[in-house]
Write a structure and sequence with these properties.
It is built from 26 helices and no strands. It starts with a helix and ends with a helix. α17 packs across α21. With 490 residues, it is mostly helical. About 3% of the residues have low confidence. The relative contact order is 0.07. Keywords: Membrane, Transmembrane, Transmembrane helix.
Length: 490
């Protein structure tokens, strides 16, 4: 196993992007250490924080009450950001290395994930500062073992989710139903479907019960190991999500046959669904669709027109922001194919524009439930949708040409800064502030409704003038095509 570890280190150290991204790596390490130090500080001073907030509930009882919410949050964090351990097995196929050894290595490597430092940083400090003074040393250590083993169970459960269960509608239905039923029961019906806090108290009082989480941990470790062992073939490691994407994109063939423009849009949709990085970006955009619910639920003060415009422009244009900022980088290693074709550049530009417009139409339809917060919110949603179609979609297409950088599409977007340049740090500013700048003078001179109307009219003007914009972008692509091919080739 030590040789595999050595090969992994050499592969990491000799990577072409290692020294290029060294500054970002050092920054992320320092940021992670800063976060862990803050978690250790907070957990070690938990009693003092409770006294400062005037909370007189017994600290250990309070901690147990929130254990379930913490572990649900940890599982969500792991699912979104933690990568499943991977190994390029092709160089080892001709060597006398058993699948058993490689599978054990993948299990061992997964444990070295930095996300496994979160639970110790929180629970060791809580145990020393709060739990042991409250219930004693022996019971406190049992409580610590229970929480750390639960965190490791979630670690291996996350691997199984991503590798085996992620495409199962039944799994997601059961999981979300359990969370929803537990939330409703806890808040309205006075019962807990998953009484994790009570289980923690029971195990603390009866240490023999600690064998249950330990057995569950051994089971998920063995299940993960068996999965790696049974799928350690090149054909079996083929991305299952890509296969599901193939099934969907196969349905686009009839649509693609209706003109070159639809063919280009279909090719881009296939690119999105067949590659991990683009799929991850779309999934992240989907998560942000709940952003208005979070903001508007905070009270009337969060439903001011300025806040509503900010939330609405973000909501209806989330795909434009998330996907459009790398609009040309998605075609890394393919720019020479696109830019040397006889097809007019203008048609290629229009196909990307239409894809962004379709995304705004979809998010506008998904915004209908927010009618619950009043028709004024829906008018703002409609106005910002027009603004996104007429102004922001074209603005992002132009700004994404500011020094685009290549992206490896088969890598996840989590903690991945490929393609990120100076443009990505400023691209959101005009997209978000633009409608507010349009709104402010009309609202000040007349009223808020006139300001919202001005946003909609601005978007309509942009839609009417889209043809000259297509020509301008097409000329830019034609002028800089060789530079783009060079810059977007890995």
């Amino acid at each position: 196993m030590k040789w595999i570890l050595k090969h992994q280190w050499l592969n990491f150290r000799r990577s072409p992007a290692f020294e290029k991204d060294l500054g970002i790596k050092i920054f992320l390490i320092l940021l992670g250490l800063f976060l862990l130090m803050n978690l250790i500080f907070v957990s070690s001073n938990f009693n003092e924080l409770l006294d400062g907030f005037g909370i007189d509930t017994e600290p250990t009882i309070l901690i147990n009450q929130f254990l379930l919410y913490y572990f649900i949050s940890e599982l969500g964090l792991r699912y979104l950001m933690q990568n499943v351990p991977a190994l390029d097995i092709e160089p080892y196929l001709h060597l006398p290395i058993s699948k058993n050894l490689v599978s054990k290595f993948l299990v061992f490597r997964s444990i070295l994930s930095p996300y496994n430092l979160l639970a110790p940083s929180i629970f060791i400090g809580l145990t020393v500062s709060t739990v042991i003074p409250s219930i004693g040393l022996s019971k406190g250590l049992v409580w610590l073992l229970f929480t750390l083993s639960t965190s490791l169970i979630l670690h291996f459960f996350n691997i199984l989710i991503k590798k085996k269960l992620e495409n199962s509608n039944l799994f997601w239905t059961v999981l979300l139903s359990l969370i929803a039923i537990n939330y409703i029961g806890n808040n309205y019906l006075n019962f807990d479907l998953i009484p994790l806090g009570q289980w923690a108290s029971a195990i603390t009082n009866n240490p023999i019960l600690l064998i249950v989480p330990i057995l569950i941990l051994l089971f998920v470790i063995y299940t993960s190991y068996k999965f790696f062992l049974e799928n350690l073939y090149l054909e079996d490691l083929f991305d299952a999500k890509m296969m599901s994407g193939e099934k969907f994109t196969g349905k686009l063939r009839n649509w693609e046959s209706k003109g070159l423009l639809n063919t280009l849009i279909g090719q881009e949709l296939k690119l999105i669904l067949r590659h991990k990085r683009s799929r991850s970006s779309v999934m992240m955009a989907g998560i942000f669709l709940f952003y208005p619910l979070l903001i508007f639920s905070m009270g009337k003060e969060t439903q001011s027109e300025f806040m509503a415009i900010f939330v609405s422009i973000f909501f209806t244009g989330i795909f434009i922001i998330q996907y459009g900022q790398f609009l040309w980088s998605w075609n890394t290693n393919q720019m020479d194919f696109f830019l040397t074709q006889i097809n007019p550049y203008k048609l290629w530009v229009e196909s990307r524009y239409r894809l962004l417009v379709y995304s705004v139409i979809i998010t506008s339809i998904l915004s209908l439930p927010y009618f619950y917060y009043g028709y004024e919110i829906m008018l703002i949603m409609a106005a910002t949708a027009l603004y996104n179609v007429g102004i922001n979609s074209m603005l992002i297409m132009r700004m994404s040409l500011w020094g685009p950088k290549p992206i490896e599409l088969d890598k996840s977007s989590m903690m991945n800064y490929q393609g990120v340049g100076a443009a990505q740090f400023v691209v959101g500013i005009p997209l978000i502030l633009g409608p507010m700048i349009v709104y402010a003078p009309f609202s000040y001179i007349w009223n808020g409704q006139i300001g919202v109307l001005a946003i909609a009219v601005t978007g309509l003007i942009g839609i009417v003038l889209r043809k000259p914009f297509f020509n301008a972008i097409a000329n830019k692509l034609k002028k800089d095509k060789y530079k783009l091919i060079h810059d977007l080739t890995i």
